[in-house]
Write a structure and sequence with these properties.
heterodimer; A: mainly alpha; 0% strand; B: 379 residues; alpha/beta; 2 domains; 8-stranded mixed β-sheet; 3-stranded antiparallel β-sheet; 13 helices
């Protein structure tokens, strides 16, 4: 199920809220666990087995890791087992098809390609369960002895399908004991409405624009249309993803959980390194804690740091989808971040703000081209249109059509992507209007994509 | 914000959600939604097979969306939202000037050419088999071509559609093609009611201008406007564009119908029932265009007992013909109407048995842009 649907808003959520608050505090985890399984089963009934298996497996392994804390080899063995099984599941469901296709084309073999539906959110919950076992091994947290509580953590529906990646350590105390008050419920609800509005009222609208522009070809395409389109896509993915995180954080709050923030106005960044500290924060933090630092981080030689950065960015790219364009996308950012760190960083900070900001946004635009186009020739074609004003024409009637009829939307989108948004007062009537407007756009469900099937 | 204000606001917001949930639960499900002219999804019956195939949940979500209480109002809120945001269209319908709505038509070149090929193939068969039968073709444009100045700025639909139609006429050169566009455009200079403002169809007056062109090409001399009695039959017609755009302040349209002094009989050939040529019943429904030819005939005939001719016409048509067929009927002893999409006999056998004098292929460009099953021409 997705949050931005009438079924979730007007059927699932009201029922879960009523049952949850009517249930005595000590049984509330059961309610959440069952609700989460239902939420997950809605889209993928079969993969509920996967969810239950993960819960049982990670529960057991973490206990064993803890039990053999003093026997180094045994403990390492169990950690390794956890890595193999968790990453194995991710690899099997998400990357098997990609790997066999790649091997086929490299060696001219003819392996049969497993065509499995990707379990929704598998990349998110695999990372969550891994963080749990690894933190137990590091001694950061004690293992959870109540399997239901662990199950609640793993399946928790607010962040199940599209993040943020919540580390067990961050909500451990809330799993055991959480107080809910009106303030929290209120803040959660408002956060949810903001997220819903971002997704339905902005992301879906600019997304519809991008869906048109991304399929244009010469002679309709022009240089300015290409730029207009990629800006629309940049806004779509930001408002979609951060809207989803807002809804997750809001829902979490309503049920008494405090998740960490996942986005912090990434488009105001003045370098790519800064962008990645503001974009999908929970993913960056995860890779830092569980890949970059264990590899040695930046404490070794320069060559080792370079290697570690390359690994992290290769994996970051791959995590976003099983295709070469995502790897390319990861390596693109890895390269820029290495450059900023070792070469141009000092030069960049001396530049005026506008230069730093433009530098960042232009690189991001090309990044989104890599992210969007799986077909390399289309990717190359679109990049060429962006780069060369004379590849087609600078502007044409189609450009003017988009400027006139989507200009206001894009300007609003750009403004709301900056901290100005925080300054907009949101009194109750405005919130009610936003919620009703979002409902209206969902009733006329013309364009409402779910972007995270690939993650 | 203090705790008590937070509590109050939370209760307001939650009651809003719960009220709508409750309304959804309590309201009866609707089968047919006239506003959108379609059947709504009903509560799907549960089966494990459907669940595991992902069908059940999909249907269930569609059910909730379709049956959501106050559906029409939500659609109009959304329409207004798009309008205020400066969008040019909603659900593929442009918000034009002069309170006129237009269809956003993107020509599907592949489909378009496929349809042309089917017509050429059919013509080859016809010229060999029944050389004495006259075959002609006319495509009816959308209102964008007739009132282009009222389109939102910077749309390119007009050139696109005009080019596609001209191209089609060039490719269809072996067949007699009748271009009604210039005449409609000329009349549009002073006549605002050639097309409805809230529906995709041309009006019967628009059809009259098309009729003049067509019958003159077919070798008759067209009757004057005064031959018919023109009467307004409805002042509150909200058509298909209106429902898609969902902007409350567009429309309504007036429906004017041409009443003939001749003795016309209208027969539904599926069951040989005699039906009214113009049906008052439809004027109380949402889709009032059904007034003409009593709904959507798939296979029907209009006979004219007032003329001495024994000429017959086969009209391969879509709903745009429903307003022109009664006018053409003044020149033929009988006009047989066939909508190929709903016609399941062998057309060739039927043509051979009936030996029509003329065959006219007359459809809207929007229909010609879809798979209108022209393969059936050769069946």
């Amino acid at each position: 199920m997705v949050f931005s649907s009438l079924t979730f808003l007007y059927i699932f959520l009201p029922i879960v809220l009523i049952v949850y608050f009517l249930t005595p505090a000590r049984f509330r985890n059961i309610v959440l666990f069952l609700a989460s399984l239902l939420f997950y089963a809605w889209g993928e009934p079969i993969y509920i087995v996967l969810m239950l298996f993960s819960t049982l497996f990670d529960y057991t392994v973490a206990l064993l890791v803890y039990r053999f804390n003093n026997q180094k080899r045994a403990k390492q063995g169990f950690v390794l087992l956890s890595l193999i099984v968790n990453l194995g599941l991710l690899g099997f469901f998400k990357y098997a098809g990609f790997i066999t296709t790649t091997v086929d084309s490299l060696f001219q073999t003819n392996m049969s390609i497993p065509s499995l539906a990707l379990p929704i959110g598998i990349s998110f919950y695999t990372f969550q369960t891994l963080s749990y076992t690894l933190d137990v091994a590091k001694g950061v947290v004690a293992p959870q002895r109540n399997i239901l509580k662990l199950g609640t953590y793993i399946t928790l529906f607010p962040q199940l399908v599209a993040g943020p990646i919540v580390r067990y350590a961050d909500i451990e105390t809330q799993l055991n004991n959480r107080q809910i008050n009106w303030m929290q419920l209120h803040d959660g609800l408002i956060r949810f409405i903001i997220g819903l509005s971002k997704k339905v009222l902005i992301a879906n609208q600019v997304g519809a624009l991008w869906a048109e522009i991304s399929t244009l070809d010469t002679p309709s395409m022009s240089w300015l249309t290409a730029w207009f389109g990629i800006i629309a896509f940049g806004l779509q993915i930001y408002f979609d993803f951060s809207g989803y995180s807002d809804m997750a954080i809001g829902l979490g709050k309503m049920f008494g959980f405090e998740f960490l923030e996942n986005f912090n106005f990434p488009y105001i960044s003045q370098s790519i390194s800064e962008f990645w500290r503001r974009w999908h924060i929970s993913l960056g933090a995860w890779f830092k804690s569980y890949v970059y630092i264990p590899l040695g981080g930046n404490r070794g030689t320069t060559a080792q740091t370079l290697r570690n950065l390359a690994i992290v960015w290769f994996l970051t790219g791959l995590w976003h989808g099983a295709n070469w364009n995502f790897i390319l996308w990861g390596l693109y950012f890895g390269t820029i971040i290495i450059c900023e760190r070792f070469f141009i960083g000092n030069w960049l900070v001396q530049q005026p703000r506008i230069v730093r900001h433009s530098y960042t946004l232009i690189l991001l635009a090309f990044g989104w081209v890599l992210f969007y186009f799986e077909d390399m020739s289309l990717m190359g074609q679109y990049s060429y249109w962006l780069l060369n004003p004379f590849a087609t024409t600078i502007l044409n009637t189609t450009t003017l059509y988009y400027f006139t009829h989507f200009g206001l939307l894009l300007v609003i989108g750009c403004l709301l992507a900056t901290p100005l948004r925080k300054k907009i007062p949101l009194p109750l009537p405005i919130l009610i209007c936003l919620f009703l407007l979002a409902t209206a756009y969902l009733v006329d469900a013309s364009f409402n994509p779910f972007l995270y099937f690939r993650f | 914000m203090n705790e008590s204000k937070a509590k109050r606001h939370t209760i307001y917001l939650l009651s809003l959600i719960f009220t709508l949930s409750l309304a959804f639960l309590l309201f009866d499900d609707q089968r047919f939604f006239a506003y959108e002219n379609r059947y709504l999804q009903q509560l799907p019956s549960f089966s494990l097979d459907d669940l595991f195939a992902g069908q059940y949940t999909k249907k269930f979500e569609k059910y909730v969306t379709d049956q959501f209480p106050f559906r029409k109002n939500w659609l109009q809120v959304k329409g207004m939202g798009e309008f205020i945001l400066g969008k040019a269209e909603n659900n593929g319908v442009y918000f034009g000037n002069d309170l006129r709505l237009f269809e956003r038509l993107t020509i599907d070149t592949t489909q378009w050419n496929e349809n042309i090929d089917h017509l050429l193939e059919f013509n080859n068969w016809l010229t060999v088999t029944l050389p004495q039968t006259e075959f002609s073709i006319s495509l009816i444009p959308t209102s964008s071509l007739i009132y282009p100045q009222a389109l939102p700025v910077f749309t390119n639909d007009v050139t696109q559609q005009q080019t596609a139609i001209s191209d089609a006429y060039i490719q269809l050169a072996p067949i007699e093609t009748i271009d009604v566009i210039p005449s409609l455009q000329a009349h549009a200079q002073y006549d605002k009611s050639i097309f409805f403002t809230t529906d995709h169809h041309w009006t019967q007056l628009g059809a009259f201008y098309g009729y003049e062109q067509i019958v003159n090409t077919l070798g008759f001399s067209s009757l004057a406007h005064e031959f018919w009695t023109w009467q307004d039959v409805s002042y509150d017609f909200y058509g298909s564009y209106f429902s898609k755009a969902s902007i409350p302040f567009y429309g309504p349209d007036t429906i004017t119908a041409a009443f003939s002094p001749s003795q016309l009989t209208y027969i539904n050939l599926n069951n040989y029932a005699i039906e009214p040529l113009y049906s008052e019943n439809y004027l109380s429904l949402h889709d009032q265009y059904g007034y003409f030819l009593n709904g959507t005939p798939s296979f029907a005939r209009i006979t004219n007992d007032s003329i001495d001719s024994d000429q017959t016409l086969l009209l391969i048509k879509d709903s745009y013909s429903h307003v022109i067929a009664p006018l053409l009927a003044e020149h033929y002893a009988s006009i047989t109407l066939i909508d190929l999409r709903f016609f399941n006999q062998s057309l060739r056998d039927y043509i051979m048995s009936e030996q029509f004098d003329d065959i006219l292929f007359l459809v809207g460009s929007t229909t010609f842009n879809t798979n209108m099953q022209l393969g059936k021409l050769m069946r």
